[in-house]
What we know:
Layout: H1 9-25, E1 62-64, E2 70-73, E3 82-89, E4 102-107, E5 111-114, E6 122-130, E7 143-146, E8 156-164, E9 167-173, E10 181-187, E11 195-200, E12 204-207, E13 215-223, E14 236-239, E15 252-259, E16 262-268, E17 275-283, E18 296-300, E19 304-308, E20 317-324, E21 339-341, E22 351-357, E23 360-365, E24 377-385, E25 397-401, E26 405-409, E27 417-425, E28 437-439
Parallel strand pairs: 15-21
Antiparallel strand pairs: 1-2, 2-5, 3-4, 3-6, 6-7, 8-9, 9-12, 10-11, 10-13, 13-14, 15-16, 16-19, 17-18, 17-20, 22-23, 23-26, 24-25, 24-27, 27-28
Amino acid sequence: MSRRRHLRPAAVASAAAVVLALGLxxxxxxxxxATTPGSAVRADDDPDQPENPLYDAPEGFRVDSGRxxxxxxxxxxxxxxxxxxxxxxxxxxxxxxxGPYELIATVPTGSYADETADPDVAYAYRVRxxxxxxxxxxxxxxxxxxxxxxxxxxxxxxTRARQDERGVTLTWRTGDSDSVKYVLYRAExxxxxxxxxxxxxxxxxxxxxGDPGLTYSYEVRGVxxxxxxxxxxxxxxxxxxxxxATAPKAPSxxxxxxxxxRLTLSWSQSPHVPVSSYTVYRSKTSPVDTSDPANxxxxxxxxxxxxxxxxxxxxxxxxxxxxxxxxxxxxxxxSVKPAYTEPRPPGATYxxxxxxxxxxxxxxxxxxxxxxxxxxxxxYRVYRATSPRVTKENAEFxxxxxxxxxxDRGLTGGTAYYYAVATLNEDGLESALSPEVSxxxxx
Length: 443
């Protein structure tokens, strides 16, 4: 931009004196200047002074109203080292209809956020530049802004215009507000927490992301240019329709455990699209490619799957796909690598029934419990000795059974026998012995 050229007031006065002298006497007599060339320049001097590098006001001045602050910005000047921000209360609509300006900030960059403005009061702002020598630029043209905290009126007459397998379409009226956009919220029930699903600048919105078959409660709120959000509109309900072509939602694979060789997977499933079966997939990489038949592990109608795996299967990832009653597959669940736990010996049991008979002894014991993070109990080992304090090392006889009862036959009548039972699990581990019992069969 070209530099503007103006005469200083002192130079104008000197020229006038010369003209006056010529007019009166015909001889020019130069008057003394009002200021000497070496006099100091003050920050409030005329910005059109000679050699002032700040001969133009900052360009691109912009004022944006906001809820928490009025934001000012402008293009920096290469010669400027700081900028003064001045503010006045706006008393009318004209640019000069303001109260007195006051300096509210001096900043080094081309922006300022006025957080001290009183809420909902209109202000006029102007800015000028300074340099290190005390020169000042002209002021920018004043612009107005307000720290706006007043929310717009709520939208009215929210209506469900359409619902089909692709989504729910909603329309509403502005409510005669100053909203510049609208935010849509939905909840899974009238009393559940609202979740933002999108925004629009028009008076209609189509929700295509809701779960099919699930009835949502919707509301809309207006937002003004300062970011203030209105109260909620009336609420309406809408449901994305379930058809034969609707895919179920992906299962949520919540638990994956590998205890020794025992793999257990469990998941949950949205109930709004009926599911007939699930397919479990696995691979050594994540995510599991459920389109590859080679990765299929098993199918099940349950929301849980348990199996025994080999040592090489510890490092697999697993995923589940649901299939609807109309043979439509869901997206795959997240791919999960089971948490591995070293197998632990099972819990011990105790013998609660001892009945001697003719050359026999019948024993009965309690089934040993096992938790979801423990290997399954597969059986029991009965230990027998002819002297007290039975141990696994001194027992003269052992046998394994899958039940909780055993009849020891072929015994010598009148002889005391001592018994203890240990629990076995599918990892081949054995519990400590139960408390010892004794019995003497009859002849």
